[in-house]
């Protein structure tokens, strides 16, 4: 895309210098046809005893090696390049300083996008509504059948000292039959408690099964019949759990009894009497802690053990993206080497809904594979992702829930990780907006079978590749701002602030079970009853997620070559005081809302900020011609430009560069002729008012976000001043419709106003389809170039400051073109 460029020059003038060695010409050669660079230090004359009547730049270009590019596939760039590109020439003077104005927000607030933030300094709680059933049984007749007579104290069955828990126990058909259980309804069970405790949201579910042992790698969590659901008080001794819905046992299958509970406020640990068996008859899990990283929760991991990673790597974790994350740019983990080269990165996803896996860097770039993900793969569902690389075989793989999801070959860059961040990228940006759990990093490519066998289990020493485990963050702490590395390396990860710790309700725990051969003694009840079932609404409360609020100030470095400092003042965790909600605990649907009264309000404002750089002057701007069939001859074509006004920066060693993409479209030969003699006027100084920004849009120019009014000190010893403006147009900004530009000195009415509107002219060099013109700044296909000089001497006072404001008036109803073209403008004094 071509850029609009505005160049405003103030020249400080004095008259009457004497010439020395008149008529001599000093030739300075810069780039020539054979130059292998477009960026070099040029030695310009720097003798203060010599004056120059004029400085000319001879700008010659020819098609590469004098060849002509025919309109034939594969030959369209052998001479002049086929397409048009911006091609701008710069002189950088590091003894001078430019600045670019921008703004920085006064506050950053995680997971908040507005400008007015009402808050409270303490957490508030949202309510979740559930329906439970209590059962009163009138016993007409009953038989009790006991399976298990052990005397063990089992604390993992209903671990009420945790926020949540789930456990499953297998009973075989033979055990039930031997205990006297008959085909038909199971109406309840009795458990023997060894102490008192409260177990809330206790749910008992039962299903038939053909399994003869339970497996933590493949837990069975679907297809159960709910038989009991109530907040339950356990007292020492036998405790009856009367089912509100009996379970109809078929008499021939084994059964699994599933217990789950949620104690948002943990209670006393509950022990039940039980026994050991000869096989894995039990599974249990608790809490299910994890972190939500939507608020920018990012941790730095200790990386000393990562030196063992070179040719092979595996990264695995559970994740569940928030709603909308599929179109958000995120990094869930990034690692770099000491040179800040990316060595590991996972976008899960990027804003184009692709999952990217980057791994290994040879100093010239990193290996990458990527694939488009579905919404379900990255949003609102827990998924287990595994990323592997083997630089020896060149294979990079991505597994989803143990199944190969994507692969790439020829990826042989070695891996060197010296710093690692998870939850975001290495610059603490692009946080993964969702839940994260069980992060493991290995110095080996794990086999798919091992991934599948261990994805639902906590890693321990029985893992076949345990010695290759470099780091393992289970994220089970539930509190605090660190996470323990459960590998042998014990490299603690530190969060910048306390994470938003979450836990999983008991009935939703579906992974990370521990296998057990112990089982509670269980009495099965069968009989005839008169049941009275009473439903009741029960509420649970959970804290709302807080926001990390960072406050900043800008410390000015005006008068130096250093950019202003954007300084963090303080960091707090606040809660958005909008509403607290009542949700349906099963569906998550909002039932009601209640206003939260704020204790304060933060207004996010824009702080003025300036970046500073060595002064960079654009002395030439053109758009390269369309080169098919273009013949500029072996000697090319030369344009001559008067550069005398630029003498103050064309002294001594100065960096000269040609940039913006078109610098290699043609051969170039550029010379400067310094003609000794008496100048018409001495140029005392040239000062760049506004540095050309990298990118800015038209609205930013119109609203003074760029090229804001600036105070300029005018030299007390100068006799005259002028402003030079150089503008090129593209899109709707002067090429096809008129644009009004103004310059204002010290407020009041505009001293200078002009309209830029240049239509395309006939092509004077090459009769190619379409039209293009040549003007002061070079060839501009389909563009307009405007050079203006304004004598501002009557409007300023030497030795005094004056405000200079360039402005471009908006178009009310653009007829053609797009308002989204990028623009770069430069004002020079």
Q: Describe it for me?
A:
This protein is 3% helix and 50% strand. With 829 residues, it is mostly beta strands. Strands 18, 20, 25, 26, 27, 29, 30 and 33 form an 8-stranded antiparallel β-sheet that branches. Strands 24-23-22-21-28-19-32-31 form an 8-stranded antiparallel β-sheet, with no helix packed on it. A 6-stranded mixed β-sheet has the order 14-11-36-8-39-40, with no helix packed on it. A hairpin with a 2-residue loop joins strand 52 (773-775) and strand 53 (778-780). The longest helix is centred in the middle third of the chain and has 7 residues, at 448-454.
Query: Ends: how far apart?
Result: 27 Å
**Helix-and-strand structural type:** mainly beta
Low-confidence stretches: 1-19, 760-784, 811-829
Give the rounded overall mean pLDDT.
87
Oligomeric state, counting identical vs distinct chains: single chain
| Biggest beta sheet summary | 8 strands, antiparallel
Relative helix content: under 10%
Q: What is the rounded Rg?
A: 37 Å
The gross shape turns out to be elongated
